[in-house]
Specification:
3 domains; FAD; Protoporphyrinogen_oxidase; 20 strands; 5-stranded parallel beta sheet; flavoprotein; protoporphyrinogen ix oxidase, domain 3; 7-stranded mixed beta sheet; Coproporphyrinogen III oxidase; 15 helices; FAD/NAD(P)-binding domain; Zeta_carotene_desat/Oxidored; alpha/beta; Polyamine Oxidase, Chain A, domain 2
Length: 454
Amino acid sequence: MRKRVAIIGGGITGLAAAVRIRDQAPPDTDIIVYEQSGALGGKLRTGELTGATVERGAEAFLAGAPDGTESAAVHLARRLSLGDALVHPSAVQAALAVGGRLEPIPAGTLMGIPRAYDGDDRDTGTPLLGPHDDVTVGALVRARYGDDVVNRLVDPLLGGVYAGQADQLSLAATMPALAAAARTEHTLTAAVRAAQAGTVRVPGRPMFATINGGLSRLVEAAAAASGARINLGLPVHGLARTENGWRLQLAAAPAGHVEDVDAVVLAVPATAASRLLRSAGDTSGSAVVGALSYASVALVAMALPSDTPLPELSGFLVPPTEGTLVKAATFVTRKWPAPGPPDASVIIRASLGHAGDQQRLQHDDTTLAEHAHTELGTLLDADLPPPIAFWVQRWEHALPQYRTGHLQRIASARAGLPPGLALAGAAYDGIGIPACITSGEAAADDVSKYLACP
């Protein structure tokens, strides 16, 4: 009998799940994607500025996995016949903006945590963490290396990824290799070295990659390869168990319109997932998922005259101690060089906002862009010319903030899910594109096994 699978959420997580189900399930399986917005891709959205490709969301992904294999994002790109479109950033380095200076990011650190330290990192005879302990990144590093390492190194690097602070983010969720090492090693230097040693580096493989022409190509190719029926602008408002599967209550449809399916992948942000779990009768899972918090961010891209001087860098990160709304900046035309006319604009993309900064982002686009322009000039110690053009992209409640105990709570929520229902996405398993793809594929595997049961 023909099976039907609903995937609620059309970001890269949901689309990766759709492709995986298409590859594993019987050919006649009906896959239906519901996306409440008018576009697929979620935080993957390619834009342009003065004719140049500039991402409005994530700009790249890790090219390798910790075990030395290609990352899930590279693997998916190859599956979608985009292997030849993979490109890598230039070799120029990034910096830290500290006290009006741009300083090199120290080499050999693990998310800013040095592998060697001259201070008091004594061996007390016991592992840093117990077998099931979780602490914040900041708590561990401050206790061993002091405040300065956290404030000047760890916070800006973690903030560049999560828009959060080391004192709030779970070690186990954000740095699992270090957490595992800390359960056996007695010093932080030993734990950092063990975590680094466990990551296989492939000679000649760049750390990051993206898709030539923009990450929206990955989205479009995944949607096409899935063979799914795509419903844009159609939220799912309710989810109920039936004798043979699940009934979806659809919004923006005729009164009482429903869709019956055999299995469901929830690949939506935590607030929407919590609501749907509650409607399905899973009050415990709904409470866990609903308690997850997010940080809001904004991106400001500006095109400057072609003769604007910039440092020989790919960009820089800003420690929260600097007090700026700008937390990072990418020199797009230097990091991702592309053929163009000699007078092509110099493009900078600034990332604004940390967890708790939402009110500071509540300016109109022009004011926010002017603020970013002023702060960039201060951080670069340069008199930047006015932009030729700019755009602002806001991402409300975009980046999950993993608190201590996150992994255990999510595991508990998943263990209590009703059969034929799977959770996937950045809220649970990691923020990066490879993590989202892996999460979607794991949910697809669960659903495929469920559908195969007699």
